[in-house]
Specification:
15% strand; globular; two-stranded antiparallel sheet; binds 6-hydroxymethylpterin-diphosphate; alpha/beta; eight-stranded parallel sheet; TIM Barrel
Length: 287
């Protein structure tokens, strides 16, 4: 099933990730594989290499274009993990899934982990810290991987204590614009870059809702937008549901994001999101 829109094709409609080329005239699904004991909604579920590989194959069968492998939880209050431990968790999974021919993204904020994962076959680097760690921009510049740079206020340990903005949409846009400029100065071509407002990362419920409503002003920055709202606490705050019962609200949020211009959805529930996008796409093409 292809999710196409009516806009005209051009080179600007593609995101290049190593040997992969994502056609952004359609939204794509990034399926989450957390090989962590403590992730907020699926911690411990995909531990063990065989479990994680099987989960990756399942997500691809359900419609994911990208598999995002993470070895450190960045949920609010999470304790940092050493790069050595993170590498131990992610490398066999990245290598195994890349060898099977899938577009594997490494979800990390550590330069050492980026280096290891790129060597193991990752074609995308997804950094919640926006490549601000020492050496991260240089490592990504030397690769041909796709890059996702995300906005976060503070760090995971403390970011939800007192998030403060005068205008969250403008401030996130300003931050992302500067990250894209720094990436460009470091030699990372715009065709490899996507940006993410970072839902839940140093933001109150109100900030997250305002960001979702104002998403189209981030689209105006000129880079594809990736969003991760799947099962996040803002949805729990709105619906009163626990993490496992946030599939419906995650689908609603994903569709609002796509309607406002998001092009990559980072989700846990790939099959449900894929079905929702089929409906969205059918409506788009009916005109
Ligand atoms: N959210 C999480 C992790 N990585 N990457 C991007 N680009 N955008 C996001 O919104 C994002 C992300 C947090 O979600 P999850 O991986 O499910 O949980 P945890 O950090 O607890 O492992």
């Amino acid at each position: 099933m292809q999710f196409t829109t009516n806009s005209a094709p051009s080179e600007g409609h593609f995101l290049y990730c190593g040997s992969f080329k994502l056609d952004l005239r359609q939204p794509h699904i990034m399926g989450i594989i957390n090989v962590t004991p403590d992730s907020f909604s699926d911690g411990g579920k995909h531990e063990g290499v065989e479990n994680a590989l099987a989960h990756g194959r399942k997500l691809i069968a359900e419609g994911a274009a990208i598999l995002d492998v993470g070895g450190e939880s960045t949920r609010p209050g999470a304790q940092p993990v050493s790069p050595e431990e993170e590498l131990r968790r992610v490398l066999p999974v990245v290598k195994g899934l890349a060898e099977e021919g899938y577009l594997v993204s490494i979800d990390t904020r550590h330069t050492e982990v980026m280096i290891g994962a790129l060597k193991a076959g990752a074609a995308m680097v997804n950094d919640v810290n926006g490549l601000r760690a020492e050496g991260a921009l240089a490592v990504c510049s030397e690769s041909d991987a796709g890059i996702c740079m995300m906005h976060m206020q503070g760090d995971p340990l403390t970011m939800q204590i007192n998030p403060t903005y005068v205008n969250v949409v403008l401030e996130v846009a300003e931050f992302l614009k500067h990250r894209a400029e720094d990436a460009s100065l470091a030699g990372i071509g715009p065709e490899r870059i996507c940006l993410d407002p970072g839902f839940g990362f140093g933001k109150t419920v109100q900030h997250n809702l305002e960001l979702l409503r104002g998403l189209s002003s981030l689209v105006d920055l000129g880079y594809p937008l990736l969003v991760g709202l799947s099962r996040k606490s803002v949805l729990g705050a709105v619906t009163g549901k626990g993490t496992e019962d946030r599939v419906h609200s995650s689908i609603a949020a994903a569709l609002i994001a796509v309607q406002h211009g998001a092009r990559i959805l980072r989700v846990h529930d790939v099959a449900a999101t894929h079905n929702a996008l089929a409906v969205w796409s059918a409506v788009e093409q009916s005109g």
